[in-house]
């Protein structure tokens, strides 16, 4: 996830775009940035948060909420 820092939130290789994550709420933060919430993981029970600078739309931080098991994106090559 640290490789997402500096990417545009709308870039084709940005995590939420590449994995087609379902977007949740967007909220304004006290520092002027915006926090984008996404459902991730096998069952969508992981919450991923990307803090985005509003003018450049670049990701400046990320965090997650959910168990380690919930926050794993399955490897498509391993699926049967």
Write the layout of secondary structure elements.
Blueprint: H1 15-18, E1 22-28, E2 34-40, E3 46-53, E4 58-65
Antiparallel strand pairs: 1-2, 2-3, 3-4
What does this 3D model show about the protein?
The chain starts with 14 loop residues before the first helix and ends in a 15-residue tail after the last strand. The chain is built from one helix and four strands; from the N terminus they run αββββ. The protein is mostly beta strands and 80 residues long. A four-stranded antiparallel sheet has the order 1-2-3-4, with no helix packed on it. Strand 2 and strand 3 form a beta hairpin.
The overall number of domains is: 1
Low-pLDDT regions: 76-80
- Work out the number of β strands: 4
Q: Calculate the terminal CA-CA distance, rounded to whole Å.
A: 26 Å
Listing every helix as H and every strand as E from the N terminus to the C terminus, the arrangement reads HEEEE
Summarize, please.
With 80 residues, this protein is mainly beta.
Q: Keywords for this structure?
A:
80 residues; globular
């Amino acid at each position: 996830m640290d490789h997402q820092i500096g990417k545009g939130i709308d870039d084709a290789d940005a995590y939420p775009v590449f994995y087609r994550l379902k977007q949740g709420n967007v909220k304004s933060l006290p520092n002027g940035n915006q926090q984008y919430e996404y459902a991730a993981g096998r069952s969508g029970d992981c919450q991923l948060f990307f803090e985005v600078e509003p003018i450049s739309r670049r990701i400046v931080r990320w965090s997650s909420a959910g168990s380690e098991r919930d926050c794993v994106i399955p490897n498509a090559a391993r699926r049967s």
